[in-house]
Design brief:
Length: about 200
């Protein structure tokens, strides 16, 4: 049994590793490209996992917003990042900042993310990848990579309730009250994330 579990874990790791190269050399379809500091931040209106309205324009009237993108509850790197974010959240909120997290995964899967990470910040299901597209974090997953994921229990279509295999680059943006990007962290290697310390220093 241990050998079977180890093989499964290694297989999933291989699929995840393949997605790094794939994000750097995307399939035809959606291609991710970072927004730059000084760019206008696309406004959006959505609902979080608790059904609360999240209106970026209204949030910015209260203070800056830190916007995170994550892939799904199946991604250990995402769970680690969100757990660390929750543990250190006060470093950001003490500066008058609000945190919003965006994911393509379904509301049910967002519930699993919350259970795993104890997240107390709003997490938004990005219907039809609209926010991801606006922030240019969305990319189309190659069919062979999507098949590898599925072979190890990660069905991207089911996980996201979508008809296309699309994931975000796990970018982080700080949006100022003037509606412009003040800080951007964008790395096609999903294993590399902006730390809370880095974000706090940029506020």
């Amino acid at each position: 049994m241990k050998n079977v579990l180890r093989a499964a874990a290694l297989g999933l790791f291989a699929a995840l590793t393949a997605s790094v190269a794939q994000a750097q050399n995307p399939a035809p379809g959606l291609t991710a490209a970072a927004l730059a500091v000084g760019d206008p931040a696309p406004m959006f209106n959505a609902r979080d996992a608790n059904g609360r309205g999240i209106d970026l324009e209204q949030l910015l009237k209260k203070g800056p917003v830190v916007l995170y993108f994550y892939r799904g509850q199946w991604c250990p790197y995402c769970n680690k990042q969100l757990s660390q974010l929750q543990d250190s959240l006060q470093q950001l909120t003490a500066k008058g900042t609000q945190v919003v997290v965006v994911s393509p995964e379904t509301q049910d899967n967002i519930g699993k993310t919350v259970a795993k990470t104890k997240a107390g910040f709003p997490i938004v299901h990005d219907q039809n990848f609209a926010i991801m597209k606006a922030y240019r974090t969305a990319f189309t997953v190659q069919p062979d990579v999507a098949a590898k994921y599925k072979g190890f229990g990660v069905d991207l279509l089911a996980a996201n309730g979508a008809d296309a295999a699309v994931l975000p680059v796990p970018a982080t943006y700080i949006i100022g009250q003037d509606g412009k990007i003040k800080y951007a962290y964008f790395n096609a290697d999903y294993r590399k994330r902006a730390s809370v310390k880095q974000v706090a220093a940029a506020l």
